[in-house]
Amino acid sequence: MAGKPARKTLGRPSATASGKQARRTGRNTLSSVRGRKSDTSPRVAGSRSASGVSAAAASEHGASTSSRSVSRATGFVDARTLRSEDFVTKTLKETTGPLGVAARPKVVDFNERVKERRHATILMAIKRVTILVVSIAAVVGVVWALFFSPMLMLNADQITVSGANEWVSSSKVESIASAQAGKSLLLVSTHDVETQLAGIPGVSKATATKQYPNGMRVQISAQEPAAMLKTPDGSLTAVDGKGRILNSVKNASTAGIPVIEVDDVAKGLKSRSVVTAIKVLDSLSTAMRARVNKVTAQTQDSITTELDNGNFSIIWGDASQMKLKKAVVDKIINDPNVIGDKHSVDVSAPMRPIIK
């Protein structure tokens, strides 16, 4: 618009020009300085690099020196400073321990280890089988030695017999004991021997004792005959208290042995009256039996004996309560005030004896 006044420009022209000039000068100066810096930077970098290498070398040298000094102070050995040597191979080759004791080499290979285990298993099995065989052999040997060897075998010539008399021969006793000869004493039953010996007529007691290693001692109690059975032809047969026929002895003394008259020995031993009479006589003492000179057995409840050549007649009845009956008879016949001039004593009822 024409009417508007022109805008005046405010500013400082001189100052602006001089500022621009100054900025140009500053740029040139900065470029110059940068150029100088770039010229000097390789040398500085090289110097710094050299000094760094020197410092690193010095540091490494110091560390090495320090490490050596520490090793000497503490006794620690750095493996890197050791000589090159295969200690593993050397250790694996060792076959003995520090004390010279044999040691199994260390097996590294798996197949070798498997073979070794298999070999050890076989050895263990062989060892067990060997121990088993040896044990069985030892047991068999002990059994044979104890039960089948001559070491403990009973010898017939080492059997001794004592206690026999003319009515019980020792030969009969020896024959029973000798039946065990040839057996081990551990297998010989003394109870069986004693039972067989007790079955011999006239043997009231028998004892068998083993005498190691090869003998046996037999001791018997042989009794005198309880009675003599006399047949019509005058022959005499000795019997014991159980009615068993004793050993036949020629010209044997029969003094003091009661005599029972029978028609036949075999039939007489089956008769109850004869068997009861034998039991009564067997229960008498040796002294009283010696005084008996006759025995009558009409029935089993009327056993009668004559004493002192018929001076006394004792009616015993049966064989019961013989201990009491003997005591009553002894009291009566040995006391003149009781027996008086009587000659018959009935003790079939011992609590009420009858004197006639």
TrEMBL record:
<dbReference type="InterPro" id="IPR005548">
    <property type="entry name" value="Cell_div_FtsQ/DivIB_C"/>
</dbReference>
<dbReference type="GO" id="GO:0051301">
    <property type="term" value="P:cell division"/>
</dbReference>
<dbReference type="InterPro" id="IPR013685">
    <property type="entry name" value="POTRA_FtsQ_type"/>
</dbReference>
<feature type="compositionally biased region" description="Basic residues">
    <location>
        <begin position="1"/>
        <end position="10"/>
    </location>
</feature>
<feature type="domain" description="POTRA">
    <location>
        <begin position="156"/>
        <end position="220"/>
    </location>
</feature>
<keyword id="KW-0132">Cell division</keyword>
<dbReference type="GO" id="GO:0005886">
    <property type="term" value="C:plasma membrane"/>
</dbReference>
<keyword id="KW-0812">Transmembrane</keyword>
<keyword id="KW-0472">Membrane</keyword>
<feature type="domain" description="Cell division protein FtsQ/DivIB C-terminal">
    <location>
        <begin position="231"/>
        <end position="346"/>
    </location>
</feature>
<dbReference type="InterPro" id="IPR050487">
    <property type="entry name" value="FtsQ_DivIB"/>
</dbReference>
<keyword id="KW-0131">Cell cycle</keyword>
<feature type="compositionally biased region" description="Low complexity">
    <location>
        <begin position="45"/>
        <end position="70"/>
    </location>
</feature>
<dbReference type="Pfam" id="PF08478">
    <property type="entry name" value="POTRA_1"/>
</dbReference>
<keyword id="KW-1133">Transmembrane helix</keyword>
<feature type="region of interest" description="Disordered">
    <location>
        <begin position="1"/>
        <end position="70"/>
    </location>
</feature>
<feature type="transmembrane region" description="Helical">
    <location>
        <begin position="125"/>
        <end position="147"/>
    </location>
</feature>
<dbReference type="Pfam" id="PF03799">
    <property type="entry name" value="FtsQ_DivIB_C"/>
</dbReference>
<protein>
    <submittedName>
        <fullName>FtsQ-type POTRA domain-containing protein</fullName>
    </submittedName>
</protein>
<keyword id="KW-1003">Cell membrane</keyword>
